[in-house]
Design a protein that fits this description.
This protein is α/β, with parallel strands linked by helices. The chain is built from 13 helices and 13 strands. The chain has a six-stranded mixed β-sheet with strand order 3-4-5-6-9-10, sandwiched between helices. The chain has a five-stranded parallel β-sheet with strand order 2-1-11-12-13. It has a two-stranded antiparallel ribbon with strand order 7-8. Helix 11 links the parallel strand 11 and strand 12. The model has no long low-confidence stretch (mean pLDDT 95).
């Protein structure tokens, strides 16, 4: 029997590679001669850079960039093993965790640092840039990102507009003539797992603005400004961004990447699978272990374990999911290819307590699962 271990990270606890290594330890604790392949994964959200770098034997690069509040922060991106592909998480430069609660205000926060990361990636002569756009602190439709790459976003006086979604209403002209010419030679794929439009009640401001620090009044301003931005883009470039599923992701960064850089929005797990040629990794595999920090009903919407299971189902490969926690509605994943799922938690405990024991809990559970799988053979059951 050949086993593939292909989990996502346990966010806030272990990277995808660390999860995979501990599952493997448990498998080998039961059978030291078991054939096990490791394939750390991600779905385009947090951990995507590390997972793809680990899976392709690439490298991590650290840059000093502009944070969401305009201060300087250190942010990482990856160059994959082919040396032709860069992978960026916008949250590394423009994410909500970079801000103190008192500094969270999407009227002023900017994606400028994300643009600086893209610029840094271009210096490595890459042919493709993958951008994960979850976890943003911003609502500026990627305006700051575009400015960092050379675009001129001008008001009626011909002056650059200021940072933040609160200034988009000042935008009168978009001048892309000074955009970094290297962008024309690069394919840009955006890992986007939401389908929110740019504006409206299901748009960027109303759905995500409050969690970024926007009160009711600010949400209305941000939504109006995104409408203004869309009208201008439609007038200048003939693109109605609000018709693009996912345009509202990351405070409209999804829309901005399409408008300014001609990017393509795709489900994150699909991008990851294409990059590592996941289909070929399933050849001669008899069993798959996957996992994530929390398995629930939302996991069916583009999350790693279900993405793995859907592909495995086509090859009639059983899939075991290991999770930190399992929600009441997790049974939905059984309908899309996961054969069985298990939680590592063996007694009531707080997250910080469980966190320090997570590696050992994963290892122990994997060993017990292998014992269960082999009951039929060991006891010659019919």
């Amino acid at each position: 029997m050949k086993i593939l271990v292909a989990p996502d990270s346990f966010k806030g606890s272990l990277t995808a590679l660390e999860v995979a290594e501990n599952i493997k330890k448990g498998i080998l604790a039961y059978n030291s001669e078991q054939d096990v392949d490791l394939l750390p994964l991600a779905d385009g959200g947090e951990g995507t850079v590390q997972a793809l770098v680990d899976a392709t034997e690439g490298k991590i690069i650290t840059e000093q960039v502009t944070g969401p509040a305009g201060n300087q922060v250190k942010a990482e991106f990856g160059i994959l093993g082919d040396n032709k592909t860069a992978v960026i998480e916008m949250a590394a430069a423009s994410g909500l965790p970079l801000l103190a609660k008192s500094d969270q205000n999407p009227l002023w926060t900017t994606t400028y640092g994300t643009g600086e990361l893209i610029s840094a990636a271009l210096t490595h002569q890459v042919e493709k840039i993958i951008i994960g756009i979850g976890g943003s602190a911003t609502n500026d439709a990627g305006a700051g990102m575009a400015q960092a790459l050379g675009a001129k976003l001008l008001d009626k006086k011909g002056e650059e507009i200021g940072f933040g979604g609160g200034n988009l209403n000042q935008l009168a002209e978009i001048d892309l003539s000074s955009l970094d010419p290297a962008l024309a030679e690069v394919e840009i794929l955006v890992a986007c797992d939401v389908d929110n439009p740019l504006f409206g009640k299901q748009g960027a401001a109303y759905v995500y603005g409050p969690q970024k620090g926007a009160d009711q009044a600010a949400v209305k301003i941000l939504d109006q400004n995104l409408r203004h931005f869309n009208r201008l883009v439609k007038k200048q470039f003939g693109k109605d961004l609000n018709k693009i599923a996912g345009a509202g992701a990351a405070g409209g960064l999804g829309a901005g990447l399409v408008a300014f850089l001609g990017a393509e929005l795709k489900p994150g797990i699909d991008i990851v699978f294409e990059q590592i040629d996941f289909e070929s990794r399933l050849q001669e595999i008899d069993l798959i272990f996957t996992g994530e920090g929390q398995l629930d009903g939302q996991s069916i919407h583009g999350k790693t374990p279900v993405g793995v299971a859907r592909q495995a189902k086509l090859h009639k490969i059983p899939v075991i999911a290991i999770a930190g926690t399992v929600a009441e509605d997790a049974a939905a994943v059984l309908e899309v290819g996961i054969t069985a799922y298990f939680s590592i938690i063996n007694q009531p405990a707080q997250f910080e307590e469980i966190k320090q024991y997570t590696p050992a809990l994963i290892e122990s559970l994997a060993a017990q699962i292998m014992r269960t799988i082999n009951i039929r053979n060991e006891f010659k059951l019919n």
